[in-house]
What does this fold into?
Amino acid sequence: MAASGSTAEARPRGLPSPKPLGRLLPRVAPYRARLLTAFVCLVIAAAAGLVFPLVIGYLLDAAFELKDRGALDRIALALLGIFAVQAIANFVQVYLLSSTTERVVATLREDTFAHLIRLSPAFFTDRRTGELTSRLSSDLALLQSLLGTWISELSRQILFLVGGIIMLTITNPGLTLTTLAVVPLVVGAAIVFGRALRKATTGVQDRIADAMGTADEAFGSIRTVQSFTREPVETARFRSLLEGVVTVAVHRAKLRAGFFGVVGFVAFASVVAVLWQGGAQVLAGRLTAGALVAFLFYALTVAAAVGALASLFGNFQEAVGATLRVFELLDTPPTVADPAAPVTLERPVRGAVSLDDVTFAYSDEAGPVLRNVSLRFAPGEIVALVGRSGAGKTTMASLVPRFWDVTGGRITLDGHDLRTLALHDLRGAIGIVPQEPTLFSGTVRDNIAYARPDASDADVEGAARAAHAWEFITRLPEGLDTRVGERGVKLSGGQRQRIAIARVFLKNPAVVILDEATSSLDSESEHLVEAALGELLHGRTTIIIAHRLSTVRRADRVVVLDQGRIVEEGTHETLVALGGLYHALHARQFAGLADTLVE
It folds into this structure.
């Protein structure tokens, strides 16, 4: 089975770009009744707007030609009624469309997040979190504008354009030809400028994503940034990226300005031509002043509709670029996924793990990290993986929960190939205690119960006691309800580690993967964490990525890796006496003061 390289989950090349509106239709379909009602209201509002110039013409003729006060009053009241109907129709249409857009975009944002969070770690090694959050925020905001205003305005302006042309033809066919002469020019400008606008907008969004990725990276490493006093450097780097955003955005602004300038000039030049030709007809007695004003209003309506449609075309090109990027994320295939027909994992899980001739490479270009590794972990056995940095220890441990899939060979749990098991079942049987524990910004209770959200308070407390965390939790201002801050910043390293261990206790897995949880702790915290680990590992199959001698001595068996191969295997005493790589690492530990077995 192919490994997950950093580009493995990129969208396959050669596929046609997804059509945004076509991709959105299934998401909009459940709201078709609301949208149909909104469209009816839009037609009513547009019809009211198209009647307005005709009534204005009658009003002017009543005042200047007929000099009929009664007719003038009736026409004025009719205009108020038209405006009232238009206002109600506009309110209903805007409310229905806006509320529907909010729901559709929220669902799409949720689906994008749910898809991304299921992708394997390989995808995230090539993407920064700031870039992904930019897709979820700014790109989808452009999509929201596309749905919320663009479609509504497109429909409105098409109605005004078609209706205006019909009314122009009815009012004065000769002047209609003069008015419509502008349309081909505006359409041509829209096509030329629209393509350039789409490209420019995609460039702006890409650079914004880069800038946000840099900001997120700096914020996530704020202590390192400040400890090295690199604030000016990070600011300069962010400023440089923003300058790139501004450069491309200014280019886009030039395109917009040129587009609107051309369209505006052409549209209003046509109005001047209509005024000149219509004025000549009034002077000749072939047209009343009221009819000319009505025709002028219709001409302005058509000109405004053409200009608006051209503008909307430009906005559509901008939104399409952002929308395509969102759908590209949704189209990213997971390289580690559930099998079509998963095998049921028997309960209780015994925890027998076996690597059979396993080979693994992170990408086709990179060389193998593991080479033909075969290893057995008996139920309840504690095995320490030892070796120099880059020997393949962490990679081996990451293959067991299927964060990546093996390139060759297979890994089994209780005799089942991992690729035949549902990920929920497989990962539910495995607990991981990382070297740097990950806590969320909620409460202590939330973080422990993350393993089992339906756990009772008694279960949470029991897990905290087993992890030797209850003592410090009771001293916190609000106990289990104390908020730990982003990434647990309000707690010490030892406290964060014990909460992480409590979380695994609550999960109660059959297999535990331990990435040297005490390597960065002070002696007092290390003693407490070691005590917690002693209880956690009892009776569970345990894979320890070992860096320290104290951890190795806890193991039933030690496996020494070098350049992706198993070179030694046995107990601590046996390997020391063997005089090989483990002996050299052990001797180096005693030659220095650090309690370490790796470089």
